[in-house]
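In response to the reviewer comment on reproducibility (Comment 2.3), we provide here a single inverse folding case reported in full, input and output, so that an independent group could reproduce the run without further information from us. The C-alpha cells appear first.
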C-alpha cells in the first residue's frame, strides 16, 4: 500500500516513515502543507497521516481541500493532546481517526491498518486465498500454515493483488503502490517483483497472470 506522511517534526516524521516502510508500504513523507497538497493532487494514496500544525498551509486546510476535491482516502490526524478544538474540527472536515501526541508507534500502526482495510472496502486483517493466508497486521504470509519468506516489497505487492483478487491491476497502479516518489524504480521494476513473487507462490498453486497491455491478475485458486 502507499502512504503519505505529513509531519514537520523531522524526527517524528522519519520514525513514522521508517516504521511503515519496514512493514513493506511505500511511504512518501512531506514537511509542509503545500507539499502535502501537491502530493495529494498527483498521487493515489491508501492512507494519509496528517499533522495539523504545519508550515505554509495548516493540516486542516489540506484536509478541507482534499475532501472538497471528492477524495475519500482515509486520513488519520495527529494532534497535540490539549487541542480538542482541532480534533473536533478535523473530524468535522472528514478525518477518519486521530491520535494525540505523543503516541506509541504500535498504536499508530494498528489504527493505520484498520483505516487502510476500511479504505479498500473492508478487507479482513487476515486474508485467505486458497492455501495462502496473509496477516496484514503482522505482515506474515503463509502457505499451508508455513511462513513464506517475502521481502517487504514483495509482501506489499502480494497485499495489493490479494485486496484486488480476481481483478486486473494495472501495471502503473502497482508501480504507484510499490514505490514512493523519492524511490528510483525503472519501468521494469514491477515486472521484476511480479516475477519474484510468482516463483515464491508456485508451491501454493496460485498464479499471477499477465494480461497483455492491461496488468496483472491474481487468479482464483
Ligand atoms: Ca507540527
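Designed residues, in position order:
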Amino acid at each position: 500500500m502507499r502512504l503519505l506522511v505529513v509531519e514537520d517534526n523531522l524526527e517524528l516524521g522519519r520514525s513514522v516513515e521508517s516504521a511503515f516502510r519496514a512493514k513493506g508500504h511505500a511511504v512518501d513523507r512531506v514537511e509542509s502543507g503545500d507539499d502535502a497538497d501537491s502530493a495529494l493532487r498527483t498521487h493515489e494514496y491508501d492512507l494519509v497521516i496528517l499533522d495539523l500544525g504545519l508550515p505554509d498551509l495548516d493540516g486542516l486546510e489540506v484536509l478541507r481541500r482534499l475532501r472538497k476535491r471528492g477524495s475519500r482516502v482515509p486520513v488519520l490526524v495527529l494532534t497535540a493532546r490539549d487541542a480538542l478544538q482541532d480534533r473536533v474540527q478535523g473530524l468535522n472536515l472528514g478525518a477518519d481517526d486521530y491520535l494525540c501526541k505523543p503516541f506509541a508507534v504500535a498504536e499508530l500502526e494498528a489504527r493505520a491498518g484498520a483505516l487502510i482495510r476500511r479504505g479498500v472496502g473492508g478487507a479482513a486483517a487476515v486474508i485467505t486465498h486458497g492455501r495462502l493466508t496473509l496477516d496484514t497486521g503482522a505482515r506474515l504470509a503463509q502457505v499451508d500454515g508455513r511462513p513464506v519468506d517475502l521481502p517487504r516489497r514483495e509482501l506489499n505487492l502480494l497485499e495489493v493483488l490479494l485486496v484486488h483478487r480476481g481483478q486486473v491491476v494495472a501495471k502503473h497502479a502497482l508501480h504507484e503502490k510499490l514505490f514512493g516518489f523519492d524511490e528510483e524504480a525503472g519501468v521494469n521494476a514491477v515486472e521484476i517483483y511480479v516475477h519474484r513473487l510468482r516463483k515464491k507462490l508456485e508451491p501454493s498453486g496460485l498464479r499471477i497472470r499477465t494480461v497483455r497491455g492491461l496488468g496483472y491478475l491474481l487468479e482464483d485458486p
